[in-house]
Design brief:
- This protein is 27% helix and 38% strand.
- The protein contains 5 helices and 17 strands.
- The strands form 5 sheets. A 5-stranded parallel β-sheet has the order 2-1-3-6-7. A 5-stranded antiparallel β-sheet has the order 12-11-10-14-13, with no helix packed on it. The chain has a 3-stranded antiparallel β-sheet with strand order 15-16-17, with no helix packed on it.
- The protein is elongated, with a radius of gyration of 21 Å.
- It starts with a strand and ends with a strand.
Length: 219
């Protein structure tokens, strides 16, 4: 996990860095780095490689929201957390879909809770599940799994545009999945992020630009 912090107050930035390092160690993320920047120009050169950005709304002559609008053009997956002394910009910040907006005065209480929530979101978003398919070991990123279906004695993972078969128990699989997965009947687990419609006893999934209907309950 690569984290960037941008603030023109170096003392406050170091405080944020220390808190994040402490929370990361507590939550159990082993592979991480934290970089600090006093100017957005330094960050924009390498913005593609960062997973989380914590940025002040006002950085000298720069506007943090405008900077994030630029960043979103090149890195749509980056998690953005604004940190500011003012509530004035809260609604304006919505244009870049931030994960959170923290007031500097709340950093050591509500701010810590928001950082923990953000780190947990990152872990769920990037969580993998390991399977063995025809003797080959795969590590599937869970957010890209659309449906897991039990067919005969195998489970079929519909993953991106591929399918993987594995001899696994559906109940055991569910225990290792992130909260956005739900078992809707005896044979199917779905990723709620791909649900496009729920009508009566059918759930419609938007999968590879096609719509598939999955029964919510067994006959």
């Amino acid at each position: 996990m690569k984290i960037a912090i941008i603030d023109d107050d170096s003392i406050f930035m170091d405080e944020v860095k220390d808190i994040i390092g402490e929370r990361i160690n507590k939550i159990g993320i082993n592979d991480f780095s934290i970089s600090t920047f006093s100017s957005p120009e330094q960050l924009l050169v390498d913005i593609h490689s960062f997973d989380l950005l914590i940025i002040d709304v006002e950085i000298n002559q720069y506007n943090g929201i405008s900077i994030c609008n630029q960043i979103r053009k090149f890195n749509t997956d980056i998690i953005i957390m604004f940190i500011s002394s003012y509530t004035t910009y809260v609604f304006n910040s919505f244009t870049v879909s931030p994960f959170s907006y923290i007031l500097k005065k709340d950093l050591n209480n509500k701010g810590i809770s928001e950082i923990d929530r953000c780190l947990q979101f990152y872990m769920n978003k990037n969580k993998t599940i390991k399977i063995s398919s025809f003797g080959i070991e795969y590590s599937l990123v869970q957010r890209d799994i659309k449906v897991i279906s039990k067919i005969s004695d195998k489970c079929v993972f519909y993953y991106n545009d591929k399918q993987f078969e594995a001899r696994m128990n559906l109940k055991d699989i569910l225990m290792d999945l992130s909260p956005f997965f739900v078992q809707i009947n005896k044979s199917d687990i779905i990723n709620l992020n791909f649900v496009s419609d729920i009508h009566k006893d059918e759930i419609t999934l938007n999968v590879s630009a096609k719509l598939y209907s999955v029964p919510k309950k067994d006959d």
